[in-house]
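Extended Data, panel c. Modelled sequence:
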Amino acid sequence: MSQAPGEHDIIQQRIDNLERGKDELPDILRQEVFVFAQAMEKELLENDHKGGWKKCDPQWLLSRMCDEMVELLDCFDVERTNAPDRIGPREAFLIAQDHLRAAAGILRKHTGTHNTRGLARALAPDEARHSRSTDGVLSEAADVANFAMILADVCSKRRP
């Protein structure tokens, strides 16, 4: 994604101001939406060097969104149930992660994309995960939201 000269600096300054509590809330946005939008922008800025998304395949974008949803689920530490006859929250999370990983792999296979870096990262057992803090959840949720936004943008441009 190309930016006008100085645009990155302005956005980074706004992110820095937000982190210091000095950014101004636009009148049209709720506080929660504003904070989340800033988290999304921060994640996008950190990935600007990748060149943008305008030519990305929608199914590849879906696969990446699945990867990010797995990472979001990893932010939660959920108790395992002791009841053998029912599925508890922890088991439900593990099932969801497995299904999302499988979906990401199928989507990549269908598009012929062999870049499994995101999936491999999600499967790595000893990788340092985001902390289970609010910041970790916010960052991962922003990643998921960014892929949803990017997917909507790419698909809207493909309509006749």
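The mean pLDDT is 75. This feature is highlighted in the accompanying rendering.
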